């Protein structure tokens, strides 16, 4: 079940998960209580949710459960961002590597936006608009 969650996270094209271990280390040295809070929320909103709801996490269940996993993706992005900050602090005297980190951060944002835009763009779906309009009549 954990392997399917990891594959689904990679499928979201969020490159920041690569830097999450650095972010965990940085938060451990910086603020342990903040790390504990974020890790608890991450655990409960990802692995805990999968065990609590007893989903098998096959492709059909992931389609249904996907919106409920958004908090875990966001917290994973926080860990990854903290990892990028940690790496940029460590290599602060090397400008070229700092530019590479900046390019990785921007490309992660653009890849995540491009892969999830169609799924989130429901501007032409008029069903909810008509339903709400009919309820207010």
Summary of the model, kept short:
Helices cover 77% and strands 0% of the residues. The protein is mostly helical and 137 residues long.
Give a verbal description of the structure.
- The model has no long low-confidence stretch (mean pLDDT 79).
- The N and C termini lie far apart (46 Å).
- Helix 2 crosses helix 3 and helix 6 packs antiparallel against helix 7.
- It is built from 8 helices and no strands.
- The chain is mostly helical.
- It is globular, with a radius of gyration of 18 Å.
List the main descriptive attributes of the protein structure presented here.
137 residues; mainly alpha; 77% helix; globular
Strand content: under 5%
Count of separate DSSP helical elements: 8
Q: Taking Cα atoms only, what radius of gyration do you get, to the nearest Å?
A: 18 Å
According to DSSP, the number of beta strands is 0
Helix/strand-derived category reads mainly alpha
The residue-averaged pLDDT reads: 79
Taken in chain order, the helices and strands follow as HHHHHHHH
Classify the helix fraction into a percent range: over 70%
Shape: globular
- Low-pLDDT runs of 5+ residues are none
**Separation of the first and last Cα atoms:** 46 Å
